[in-house]
Structure formats: structure tokens, C-alpha cells
Amino acid sequence: MTIYNFNLAMGWASSGVEYAQAYRENVFKKMAIDNKFVFTELILNGNIFDMAAQMGMSIDNVLPIHFFFTDIMPAKSAYTIKQLEEETNLDVTTKKLMPDRVTYKDGDTLIRANFDRIHGNVDFVDYVINGYLVRKDHYTNIKTFSEYYVPVNNQAEVYRRAFYNKNGQIAYEQFIENEQVIYRLGALILYSEFEFVDYFMTQLSLTSKDILIIDREKYIATAVLNNKGQAKVGVVIHAEHFSSNQTDKRHIVWNNFYEYQFTNANVIDFFVTATQKQKEVLAKQFKLYKGINPKIYAIPVGSLDKLRGKRHKRDTKHLMTASRLAEEKHVDWIIEAVIKVHQKTSSIQLDIFGTGASMPKLQKMISDNNADDYIKLMGHKDLQEIYKAYYGYVSASQSEGFGLTLMEAVGSGLPIVGFDVPYGNQTFIDDAANGFLLPFSTNSEESIAYLADGIEQLVDNSRQDSFKNTSYQKAEFFLEKNNQYLWEKLVKEVTHD
């Protein structure tokens, strides 16, 4: 038996979907089930195996389909500058070392060897001739693929990619023209990304004991359903699955990420929601709008190996939040709310963990408000042992299908302040018992005011010990042993139908 988990891509600031996959891998490992995490999009901004390892995943279980058709094995970035110089015969007399790269000059040719962000080895090498980028070679512990460019309107435009075997010979090629992608694998020609994924599926030799789990959809579900054979297919729901403001008693508007799977629910063997409440909502909607009763399992997308920090000293009035630093997470609202509370409670502090596109904007907001002393951007960190040092956790997201950081926060006894929205906050916060569920508003000023009020109640709360104990009680359900039992039950049921 193999469980294949299908996703689009992974990044250095991955979303909850990838972290949910990392948790799931750990459960399958304890169940002694072979599992693979399939990524269908080509990663160009770093080594996907380093990205996976950063999240605690085994790189041997990571299966980017663009590597599948080569004999190159999963590897972290290990190709050194010295190897590059020796194997490429670079003129080291023109070598110039910079913080993130090394450059070499050879007449009209400029060669830029860019470091990977973890090990300081070679990530990719640019070849620039007469000011134009003509080629880019990508590396792990070996050269994996090359991109070839042509100048179009003074911009470098990729027109071909060559993917290599270990011996340096071309395994297959990709050609790009006017946004159309064509693959050539020996004598086989594939005329789109969909055909490429579809062909990959045919090569898996699936059996009735295999399970295919779709985490993200973009031409993946069609290829999976077309080629599943006797394997079972499941869909994990990672977010709100419908648009409430466009839904009435006769019609429902599904989330685009799940519309194809829901439309074809009759051939999906099971669905997985992260919370019991979402399972109940989805089951009622399938019955009402489609007249079907598919199998739906409520299994948390994460789990706790143990409860932490029961005897750890907390830093009074020191709060934290953790997420991708993206607009939809509304971390800026948290900053503004803490600034408001600081006017009354000068001892309040906030640490913000995570990285993302909003980081420069958030730092400017902090500095412009002279809040650098009590609000800090902490970057990406392994938070497992960090939560327990804090007094409380704040969330401003208005859309959380689960909320892995919320689970980890209660697992370290933190009370939480967040909006009363499905499904994560309502799962982890019992209002006035281990935190505060705040009124929901689409008006940002009102939302900031609600956050400030909730934070003020939290830091002035005389029931801190009671709040902490309630968080620990809620966290018990999310221990690994319970999560593993739920997956064992699912696997047994769907493979014995």
C-alpha cells in the first residue's frame, strides 16, 4: 500500500496545507504506511527538498513530478562552489565574492553562481552574454535542469528547459511558446501540463490498496480520477468550502479549489474535514444540494506529540502570533490593536513569527508608530518549544479551516484571542473560558477595535491559570495517538469496501 498526497507546490513560506502534509507524514510513518507527497508544479525559487526538510518532512517521501522522469534522487543543496569551478573550468582570477553569490567574468560573458539560502552551496547559475540572460542551471547535489532564454522586449523569456539524469544526459525536455507548454520524453510528446500530470499518473502502477489524497486542485483532480484504476481517492478540505454570501436554500457556490471535486463527489471515495463542525455543515449541504451522503471524516490536519510548558514560567503580558505574513492574515490589525492597548498597558509586548510578502510593510508600520521596543518581527522559527514562554496568542485571520498554530498554542496552554468565525477559532477558543471570541466585522476599524478590546481583556485577566488549564484540556483531543487512531480507522474502512 502507498498513500499518494497531491499538491501544487511548496515554498519557503509555505501555507497551512504543506504543514498539514508534514503532520500527516508523521502519522503515516507511525502507522508504517508508505507515503509520497507529489508536487506538480516546477519549483524555481529554491530546492524543494530543502523546503520540505525545513518543515520536518523526509525528503525521500517528496516526489516532484519533474524529477520523476529522471534518475536523480532527492537531495539537499550540496553542490559546492569548488565543484562548480572545477567542473566548469571557470576563470577564478575574475572571481568576485558577494553575500549571496559569486560572479566570474569571461570577456562578454558574466557567470553568477547564486547561493542556496540554507547551506551556502550552489542553488542556480546564471549565464549572461552581452547583458542578456541566456541560460540558468539549477542544482541540488548535482545539476538537475537548465533553462534557456531569449530576449523579448529587453526581458529574458524562457523557451526551453532540459532535465538531466545523473550522468548529465538529457532525460526529457520542456518547450514553452506563447504560454503553451510541450513536453518531449523520448518519442512521446505531451501537449500541456495536464497531459504531463496525466501521463505521470499512468506510471504509478496503482492497486486497490493504494490511496490518492488530493490536497490542492489545478488539473490534478481530473488526472487522478482519470487514472486511479482501483485505487481509492480522497479530498482534504483545508479552508472554508463555500461562499456563504452567494448561497441560498436552492443554490450553493462552492470554493473554486473544491468545485470540481464536489461536482464529481459521486466518484470520490471520501472527504476529510479538519473539524467536526465543518463535517456537519458539508454533510448537510451534500444532502440538500446534491442528494448524496458521501463518506466524510473529521480528522485534525495536525497533532501534538505532547502537551508542553505546564510548569514553564510565562512572561506576563507578552503575546505572540504566527502565520504567513500575507494580507489575508491581517497581522497589521494585530499591530494596530497592540499599539492601542499599549497606551493603557505599557508593559504589553508582541512577537510576530513568520515570513511573507507583507513583512516590509509591517516593519514600517511598527517603526512609524515607534513600537519597535514592544512589537518585533521574529522571522521563521521552529515554534514547538517557543509557545510555552508566552502569556497568550492573538489571531486576526477571518478564514481558518483549522489553524495549526492555534492547535500548537493550546498545546502549550496559551489562551487565544480571535474572531468568532469558522472553523479554527470556534474549535480552539471557548469564549471567556480560555480566551475571547470577538465579533466579526468586515470593517477594518471595527475589527481593530474588537481586537484591542479582546487583547486588553486577556492581559488584564485574573483567571490566567483557569484559562491555561482549559487550553490544555482542549489540546488533549489533538494528541498524536488520537489523530493516528482516526487515520487508521479511515484507511481500514476505505480499503476494505
Automatic annotation (TrEMBL):
InterPro entries: GtfA (IPR014267), GtfA_EBD (IPR054396). It holds the Pfam family GtfA_EBD. Keywords: Cell membrane, Cytoplasm, Glycosyltransferase, Membrane, Nucleotide-binding, Transferase. Residues 101-185 form the GtfA extended beta-sheet meander domain. This is Accessory Sec system glycosyltransferase GtfA. It comes from Leuconostoc aquikimchii. The gene is gtfA.
